[in-house]
Design goal:
This protein is mainly alpha-helical. The protein contains 20 helices and two strands. The protein has a single domain, classed as Amino acid/polyamine transporter I.
Length: about 500
């Protein structure tokens, strides 16, 4: 009996596992080592597309980043360390929610968790990559823009289709790209500051306010997601019970540093008027790299000579980092949806594992198609009044990941009671009181992020002032654009669950 077969037989005794799951899981390959899992996690956690968005909140960005590192990141790390080592099955979060609350909630949660990724790839990430290429190389139009987008999307998806030993190349390249880029960016920022000075701000600028809290928390929550991602491939890891806690600790420290240092550099270098979204990071790159060649103008920075060379390399690293972020999330999310198919919470075809590659081939291809359709829709609706509708629907669809955690996080508490007999290689220290604190705290953060995303400005004196541009005086219409996609996704989850009825009826005999 192979290692995969032995694990599958062992896990079938933990809960009702289907015959389809036992058959298809036998095709999985145990290939993911400690460093592989760490790289997968870092690519998910450190997304350069959010660095500028966080820095746009000014000095308070540092305050809230450190606050959430302590009161969200730490309990989140503890939670994923316990669940990831106690229930080391393929599909991680799906299994946790299933054991805690049942198959239907697990299926809907997994769909919410999964759908974010291909839409994020085809929408935000592709658009950001095109903007970065146009800023540093040459603007893309027409067929060249479409070709770039298709190559970007299908390289990211291709990394999930082939064997992990092939797919991880994209992850390792992206991980090294972000480490080198952020390190070189921070060092160059020090050189620039020594030469040109900085934009100082007093201690009062760090004082927290409710308005910035509500604006920053969803972005920081989204930025800090990803500890559970390697657990989606739990049965493909060489030593899941040993590697998960170690990697989570390393990933937490590395993530905080890789966010805090460049964000601080942006804040002290750029004037507040330039600290905005995508422009915040890329404008900082262009500005500080003028120390190698180039000059600043009233409308932006112009790089020349060595400065232009370093700027182009930075832009390439930025695009590779975006690519690897997409691959890591799709690689994990697809495995969760495949397990839902194997377990009867989604269509049976979703659970097909490639005999050749050991990957969920059907879901991988579906993710690529969804990303491509999203990209084409974004291009089609890129101007005019329809653009504002598309942007908010895209935003709420991406925010579905926050909604999914409303079931994933409380599973820790439920499983401490319902499955207390299962050995815990790593347990949240301090007993059930601390387990409750960890579960409640993380769930509250997910709730705050969800509400702030779905109802911008909640809790402020003038909530309508927080509506996206173009939506002034249209709160009710805006909320419909937020509620309808969520309702459709949940309804689709119920339909998919019904389609899995035949699979659920064929339960494997327990050992």
């Amino acid at each position: 009996m192979s290692e995969i077969d032995a694990r599958a037989a062992e896990e079938a005794t933990l809960h009702d596992e289907t015959k389809l799951a036992l058959r298809e899981k036998s095709k999985l390959r145990v290939l993911i080592g400690r460093m592989d899992a760490l790289v997968m996690m870092l690519c998910a956690l450190v997304g350069l597309d959010t660095v500028g968005a966080v820095s746009s909140d000014g000095a308070q960005a540092i305050t809230w980043l450190l606050f959430m590192a302590i009161f969200f990141f730490v309990p989140y790390a503890l939670l994923c360390s316990e669940l990831g080592t106690t229930f080391p099955e393929e599909g991680g979060p799906y299994v946790w929610v299933k054991l805690a609350f049942g198959r239907l909630p697990a299926g809907i949660t997994t769909l919410l968790y999964w759908i974010t990724n291909p839409i994020w790839l085809g929408g935000t990430l592709t658009i950001t990559a095109i903007a970065a290429f146009g800023e540093f190389f040459t603007p893309l139009h027409g067929v060249w823009k479409l070709l770039f987008a298709l190559v970007f999307i299908w390289i990211a998806v291709g990394a999930t289709i082939f064997s992990f030993n092939v797919g991880k190349i994209v992850l390792f390249v992206g991980a090294w790209a972000r480490v080198i880029l952020l390190s070189f960016f921070t060092i160059t920022a020090v050189v620039y500051a020594a030469k040109h000075g900085v934009h100082g701000f007093g201690a009062g600028a760090f004082s927290p306010t409710q308005a910035v809290f509500l604006a920053a928390v969803p972005v920081l929550f989204f930025s800090f997601e990803g500890f559970e991602l390697p657990s989606e491939a739990g049965e493909e890891m060489l030593n899941v019970k040993r590697d998960v806690p170690v990697n989570i600790l390393r990933g937490a420290v590395g993530t905080v540093l890789m966010y805090a240092l460049p964000i601080f550099a942006i804040l002290v270098i750029l004037p507040p008027s330039q600290q905005t979204s995508l422009g915040g990071f890329l404008a900082s790159v262009k500005l500080i790299f003028t120390v190698y060649g180039g000059h600043a103008t009233a409308t932006g920075s112009v790089l020349t000579g060595v400065g232009k060379l370093f700027g182009d390399l930075a832009a390439l690293g930025f695009i590779l980092a975006l690519l690897s972020s997409a691959s890591s999330w799709i690689m994990g999310g697809n495995r969760g949806l495949a397990v839902a198919g194997l377990d009867g919470a989604a269509p049976k075809s979703f659970g097909i594992i490639s005999e050749k590659f050991g990957t969920p081939i059907m879901v991988d291809v579906i993710a690529g198609v969804v990303a491509t359709v999203t990209m084409l829709t974004a291009f089609w609706l890129s101007s005019g009044n329809t653009a504002k509708y598309f942007s908010v629907v895209l935003g709420v669809t991406i925010s579905t990941s926050a909604v999914s955690y409303l079931a994933i996080f409380p599973a820790l508490i439920k499983l401490r009671y319902s499955h207390s007999h299962i050995p815990r290689p790593f347990a949240v220290p301090g007993g059930k009181a601390v387990v409750w604190a960890v579960g409640v705290l993380t769930t509250l953060w997910a709730l705050v992020a969800t509400v702030a995303l779905l109802y911008p400005g909640v809790g402020t004196s003038d909530p309508d002032a927080s509506l996206p541009s173009g939506w002034t005086g249209q709160r009710l219409t805006f909320e419909f654009t937020q509620a309808i996609p969520l309702i459709v996704i949940v309804a689709l989850g119920v339909v998919w669950y019904r389609m899995g009825a035949e699979t659920r009826r064929e339960i494997a005999a327990k050992a």
